[in-house]
Amino acid sequence: MTAFYFYLLSVSITLCSQLIETPFKIAITAESPAVVAESDVYIKVSLTNTADRNVNEGVAYVRDLDSAFRFEVRDEHDKLVPKRTYPHPELGTPGSVTFRTIARGETHTQEQRVSALYDMRKPGKYKIQVWKRNPDYDIKSNVITITVIPNDKGSVPKADKAP
């Protein structure tokens, strides 16, 4: 009987020590690494189905963002960037629901307006990472850096000096 329990214990340890294969890979890119202050910040999120079957999912879009993803935005001091606030949150947020199938091996790429959720209107460097939550694990993307450059609209042009 002891041998049987030892066998079960060794099988359990072996199974637990194996890496869980995630059904997706996430990669993010930016159209441009620099954005003018007060402009919207868009990134492209590519979700690749690495499972051995098609994956069906229902997704809500809120403020142009896919709710299947979580976004982490940090400033140049590695502090989390605060979420934006909007007037009258009691009225709800505009959105829609879509159902999609991502075939085995297929990559689904879409633009995400990160600045709709995070306050990235001030000049500086922002690090962005996207992840997809699962009950057993989180799937994380690469990290990209977006530089928000000052908007020169408010500056007054210097007058030429007279000789």
SSE blueprint and pairings:
Layout: H1 2-17, E1 24-29, E2 34-36, E3 42-49, E4 55-62, E5 65-66, E6 69-74, E7 95-102, E8 107-113, E9 124-133, E10 138-149
Can you walk through the features of this model?
With about 160 residues, this protein is mainly beta. The protein has one domain (about 20-85, about 95-150): Sandwich (Immunoglobulin-like). The chain is built from 1 helix and 10 strands; from the N terminus they run αββββββββββ. It has one helix spanning about 1-15, and strands at about 25-30, 35, 40-50, 55-60, 65, 70-75, 95-100, 105-115, 125-135, 140-150. It has a 4-stranded mixed sheet with strand order 2-10-9-6, with no helix packed on it. Strands 1-3-8 form a 3-stranded antiparallel sheet, with no helix packed on it. A 3-stranded antiparallel sheet has the order 5-4-7, with no helix packed on it. Strand 4 and strand 5 form a beta hairpin. It is globular. Mean pLDDT is about 80; it is low at about 5-20 and about 155-163.
CATH class: Mainly Beta
The level of helicity is under 10%
Main beta-sheet annotation: 4 strands, mixed
Strand order, sheet with most strands: 2-10-9-6
Net shape: globular
Give the count of structural domains.
Answer: 1
- Taking pLDDT < 50 over at least 5 consecutive residues as the criterion, the unreliable ranges are 4-18, 154-163
List how many beta strands DSSP finds: 10
Distance between the termini: 103 Å
Cα Rg: 23 Å
**Broad structural category:** mainly beta
Q: Count of DSSP helices?
A: 1
Tell me the CATH topology. Immunoglobulin-like
